[in-house]
Amino acid sequence: GPFPDPQPVPGEIVRGPDGRPTFPGTVETWFTLLDRGQRTAAMGSSDSHGADHEAGYARTMIYVGPDRDRVGGFTRQDLVDAIRTRRTISTNGPLVELFVDDAMIGDEVRVSGTVSVRVRVRAPAWAAPTRLTLWSNGGVAVGQRALPPTSGAPLDVTETFDLSLADDAWLVAE
Q1: 91 close to 104: Cβ distance less than 8 angstroms
Q2: Which of 11, 43, 48, 9 is nearest to 29 (CA)?
């Protein structure tokens, strides 16, 4: 269908006036899989159906290791291993990193009581999100923060959430 007008803020799910996703299904399906214990990698893609439609709005970022994000810095097997260990994010511009202590996206951690969750968001000014939401079991928003305006500069901000989670919980940053 046509691209939403007005254009959504990068990093946000397109929502209707009722607050529900305008193009539902993908995120809800992923959250349901996570709720049922299926640990699946986040993947995003797009396509084009003509010369006047640009592809690449949704994309997947894959973490292959520190200082390896350069031509020749990783192998095909490194990519496969990173996807299998869920070191991926689906994005439309911003780069989002999520940490629980030293654990990162894709890791499984065992904690008790309150847990400190650190989320770093980096984006060029033209793709900077205005809010950060942390989702958990059942698709419940467990934390939300407004992000500072960029004033034309790239965004690089880290937010920390102190959360009390269920014994078995997953986290997704949007």
Answers
A1: no
A2: 43
What pTM was estimated for this model as a whole?
Answer: 0.80
The CA radius of gyration of the chain, in Å to the nearest whole number, is 17
Structure tokens at 85: 């260990």
Q: Which residue has the tokens 């959504």?
A: 8
Q: Are 111 and 137 in contact (CB under 8 A)?
A: no
Task: State the pairing for strand pair 59-62/88-91.
Answer: antiparallel
pLDDT tens per residue, range 25-61: 778 888 888 888 888 888 887 776 777 766 667 788 9
Cα distance between residue 8 and residue 116, in whole Å: 30
Q: What are the CA-CA distances from residue 110 to residues 59, 69, 97, 117 (Å)?
A: 30, 29, 19, 13
